[in-house]
Amino acid sequence: MSHRVRRGLSALLSSLSGLAALLIVSMLVVILVDVFLGGVGHLSWEFLTQPPSEGMMEGGIFPALYGTAVLTLLMTVAVMPVGVATAVYLHEYAPPHSVLARAVRVAVHNLAGVPSIVYGLFGLGFFVHFVGGGLDRALGSRELHWGQPSLLWAALTLAVLTLPVVIVSTEEALRAVPVEHRTASLALGATQSQTLFRVVLPGALPGILTGAVLAVSRGAGEVAPILFTGVSYYLPDLPDSLSSQFMHLGYHTYVLATQSPDVEASRPLLYATVLVLLALTFALNLVAILIRARTRRRGD
Amino acid sequence: MQQGLVGVAPIPRLSAQARWRQVRERLVAGVVTLAAFAGIAALVLILVFVAKEALRLLVSEEARQEVSLGKLFLPQVVREGRPATFMWQPVSAVPKVSMIPLFIGTLKMTLVAMVVAVPLGVAAALYTSEFAPRRLREVLKPTIEMLAAIPSVVIGFFLLMVLASALQEALGLPSRLNALLAGLGLALAIVPVIYTVSEDALTAVPRSYREASLALGATPWETAWRVVLPAAAPGVLAACVLGFGRAIGETMIVLMASGNAALPTWQLTDSARSMSATIAAEMGEVVVGSTHYSLLFLIGVELFLFTFVLNLLAAAWTRAVLRRLGGAEAR
């Protein structure tokens, strides 16, 4: 093949690969534009603050927003301490070549790959039936109170689901703290835990926050794990205790899209709900990216 | 100066402050180590509690009558006079519990997703790491990673509202919701994963490889295709395996777009049902503790084991790429 032909071929094929990238980006744009155009007309303050009415055909999505917010808040409170502590162990305390450290890393890697519906089964079998049922029996109540799907169990299930995200982000953040900071602190006479709490963790805070934000973003979007651990489609009241069920933006989208009695009538409502959900997850991801970008620039 | 060891210095007694400091150190180390166990505990608990419900199939008399290895995997005569076939219909007078339609459904959709997502993702990763100008690269990578931020329920929504009708009109399909549509949705979900991990593997290839190839007269494409990509191959393969695992386990997209009919055909334009969608769809109406309930947990065990094995493979491949590149670099 002559050199000119080879060069032409090279230009052609590399452009084709650019086309692939363009195709992916355009799919993203199509989805975003479609959701935006379909939903922005229905957005309003009432939509965000009112409960649904007229058999879910009218009204707002406030209970779903509230349920999503409370769920992710509980999940974050549950996952952050465990996740950060595990990452601290892996990065600061584990002896080199430690068997436990290697086992934890393998476990976390595999946890990240478990399908979300299996997490739902786990939440049902372990949290709802085993822990919840056991709690009911221990408290001597004859009727099911903790042994059924609820906010608490759904939040804990999501916490296990997002544990790998928090651990990985926190480890990345700990790695970003220069080792000189640690050695300087120890040289000045601080103990390991003092160094940890007063030098390393504050320095790693942006990355830890990134992990929290990414976890919240996943928690707001995942529907499969909460399907049988606590979510509900129509609840007359807002959840008032840890054992209540709750509504959720993602689940609301799913039910509206697949089981709506009148698809055309609920179309604007559905689009607006999806727009809110997308806006939420994107905003959270953007915040995480910004924190990460600023940390990287600061560290240079 | 004292002679010899007369009057050896006494063991100093720690002040209360110093003693508290030692206790605190040990406490923090203990708490942190305990937390590390949480990760392992979670994985073990998931396996134990999902398998526990599925194990009931082996133990309960009633379950053993309805379900057996043969009933799960071999063709069964469903109606008198008709040939033996595979059917999943656990809710009926005579429960039919063949896993085969679910396996076929899952595989159909996942294969469609892989056939679409792997070329797209790897090509885009190749473009980003080899051909794109630097400023474009800095925009392209986060943009495609944004696709990963879209919840799968939104992708399923998009499929239902827009793509399903468009596809049906374009191809004249009999079923609006089918395996092909679900496969395309899955592809949308896994392309970012394949892209990101492949791109990381490609950029990890040392620059000296590219420079040597170009110096020997190869064109940029030849360098990318015959030097860089093979060097990053284990990482790219790991990316594909990760995408495959994600596609197998994905629930919401399939639930919304596949038609949810457990047909044991390989026809892409038929409705299909995946394992994860089966669990999601039927768990709501099942009696706790019944055979059907245990069967759904059995499907969960199968999913868990499958993705577990896939993850081990991906991890082994990634280690191989690090070893291969690290060794070459050292030389």
What are the segments of chain A in which pLDDT stays under 50 over at least 5 consecutive residues?
Answer: none
Counted by DSSP, the helix tally of chain B is: 13
Derived from helix and strand composition plus strand pairing, the structural class of chain B reads mainly alpha
- Strands of the widest sheet of chain A, in order across it, are 1-2
For the largest interface, the chains and their residue counts are: A-B, 88 and 89 residues
Portion of residues in beta strands of chain A equals under 5%
Q: Helicity level of chain B, as a percent range?
A: over 70%
Q: Kindly report the spatial arrangement of strands forming the biggest sheet of chain B.
A: 1-2
Shape descriptor of chain B reads flat
Oligomeric grouping of the chains: heterodimer
Series of H and E elements of chain A: HHEEHHHHHHHH
Distance N terminus to C terminus of chain A?
47 Å
Please give the number of β-strands of chain A.
2
Largest sheet of chain A: 2 strands, antiparallel
What is the straight-line distance between the termini of chain B? Answer: 59 Å
Q: Which percent bin holds the helix content of chain A?
A: over 70%
Rg calculated over all Cα atoms of chain B: 28 Å
Tell me, rounded to a whole number, the average pLDDT of chain A: 88
- Largest sheet properties of chain B: 2 strands, antiparallel
Number of strands of chain B: 2
Which value, in Å, is the CA radius of gyration of chain A? Answer: 24 Å
Describe this structure as you would to a colleague.
The complex is a heterodimer of chains A (300) and B (331). Chain A has 300 residues and is mostly helical. Chain A has ten helices and two strands. Chain A has a two-stranded antiparallel ribbon. In chain A, a hairpin with a 4-residue loop joins strand 1 (52-53) and strand 2. In chain A, helix 5 (116-139) crosses helix 6 (151-176), helix 6 packs across helix 8 and helix 9 (249-259) packs antiparallel against helix 10. The relative contact order of chain A is 0.14. Chain B has helices spanning 16-59, 61-66, 69-73, 100-131, 134-149, 152-171, 179-204, 207-215, 220-231, 233-249, 252-257, 275-282, 291-330, and strands at residues 88-89, 96-97. The longest helix of chain B is centred in the first third of the chain and has 44 residues, at 16-59. Chain B is flat. At the A-B interface, helix 1, helix 3, helix 4, helix 5 and helix 6 of A face helix 1, helix 4, helix 5, helix 6 and helix 7 of B.
